[in-house]
Amino acid sequence: MDHETFIKHPTLFGLSKELGENGLVLAEGKVWKKHRKLISQCFHFEFLKSITPDICKICGDMLEDLKESKNVNNLSMMDEMKKITGEVIGLIFFGEKLSGYEVNGEPLTLMLARMIVDIGVVTFDPLYLLFGKEFFKLGLLKKHRKLVREIKEFRAFCTKLVNEKMNKLQVEYDSGNFNKEGGRKNVCDLFFEQRMKNPNDCLSNDEIIDEYIAFFSDGMDTTGHFVTMCSYYLL
Fold first, then answer.
1. Which residue, among 38, 2, 48, has the nearest Cα to 201 in the 3D structure?
2. How many CB atoms lie within 10 A of CB 216?
3. CA distance 34 to 39
4. Which residue, among 164, 222, 173, has the nearest Cα to 197 in the 3D structure?
5. What would the mean pLDDT of 104-133 be, rounded to a whole number?
6. What average pLDDT does this structure show over 107-126?
């Protein structure tokens, strides 16, 4: 298939690319091929098998928290499922939970879920379809200005998170302490190893940021919806 002819439509995917243009979901051509090759080295069977106990623990802990909630009848099941999937993504990518992270007082997972909805609404707005992304970026409408600001804030937060993680790994590597205890590796660890083994064929920090946003947005949102609908029909 000719990737230069069959592209992701710039109007329909333009706003999503403002979040992370080179993530595997939105990348195209040679960039997609490079990312696909490097990421496939991370998600082998043994890696997936090793994280299964932690996924079960995250689900169990958060379900126990729901049981103890005094306002259980007014909970948003969708939001709670997205919190769980967001925690799993954080564990897989960074090796840590992300539930404590907030942007402007809003939990990271819920902010991203809301932004995905807002991006979808704006994308199919007649004005956007008529004038495109450049009109949106002018910020002539209040809802456009708000979304532009939130995309920048969210990306800045993710940039800080990834840069801190990669800098920490570099310090550990330089001091001879990288994975010294031989524990389970997360995706950032594997990306860093690729960088050390072959500096000319690895992901830059900016590309890792794009992949983290792709993992977070697509993994959290789609899985959260899927699990919510399964729960609805089963219960």
1. 38
2. 24
3. 9
4. 173
5. 87
6. 86
